[in-house]
Amino acid sequence: MADLPFEKVITSSEEKYTDFFNSIPAAIHRTTVEGKIVYCNWAYARLFGFNSLSELTNYPAINLYKNKKDRGLFVNSILQRGRVVDLPISFVKKDGTTIWCAVTARAVIDDDGAVEHIDGVVKDITGEIEEEESQPSLNGAIDNQNEGILIFDLHGNLIDVNEAGTEVIGFPKDKLIGKSLSEFLLPGQKVLFLLFLSDILKIGHEEVILPLIDRNGNTRYIEINGILAKKNGRAYHIKGIARDMTKRTKQQKDRSTKEKFQGVLEMAGGVAHRMNQPLTIINNLLDEVLFDTKTDDKIHKKIVSIDQQIKKLNDITTKIGNIKKYKAMDYVAGIKIVDIDKAS
Q1: pTM, two decimal places
Q2: Which of 28, 100, 248, 339 would staple 327 via disulfide (CB 3.0–4.6 Å)?
Q3: What is the DSSP string of 189-224?
Q4: Whether the predicted pLDDT of 238 surpasses 50
């Protein structure tokens, strides 16, 4: 049998690949980080009510999200953690019908280490979610409790909060109702709330400490213990108990800083002590070599250069031995190192 032309071999391989993915009952898709759908199978198209795959090619994925902000939180979570597993997200089908899905996705990295695509599998969990027009609210007895009580819908928006809860968060009630708590988090921390909601919907309960910015611009650390409330066996809303952990968190940070400082002091003293002896020997040997070497020798300049660098090492060792406080500086990739100049 004659060999098939290369183009026909490739075409045949692509067709088998496409047929294979279209035969899988799970809804599979690939998007760019920017949100364009690069590829999806038939199960994905049918899940969202589309009649052809071509309709979804280059379709903006954000149009499928009921809450557009969820797309940004989802992508940020992928970029920070590399993957998500069974993340509950509310979508809308082509005809506008709401559908809840558990999304498992991972980042696809290119040769340069940048995220090129996001590959995911979507599972319909609408049957596990109870959504009604009438929302639950706190009664008077609960409203008067000393602990902060919060009620969220399944999207994370606050439905109700008692007076103690407003004091814990640091905003009046009218500034909180209808808003997601993620809107009050420190920049870069919004993913924490998304993962908190995800874990509650998956396992029924979760606790988290969230860094919030109150109305005065101050940072507060709020502990929330959340449980999933069900109605007729289906997820209905989320109840949470909120406590202000700012003072305790600050104390823990101060203690951690002191422990780091003690570790730096011990390390600095040990390093300086161990380096002094070999450096002293090297300095003495270089002095002897320089004394025996004429200034017009070719090697003389190199020895002088070595001597200058050794003196720099002497200065660094002295600074390490004189460290009296903990001061850090940014290095690379978010890593911090001890700033020897400012710490000594």
Answers
A1: 0.55
A2: 339
A3: -HHHHHHHHHHHHHHSEEEEEEEEE-TTS-EEEEEE
A4: yes
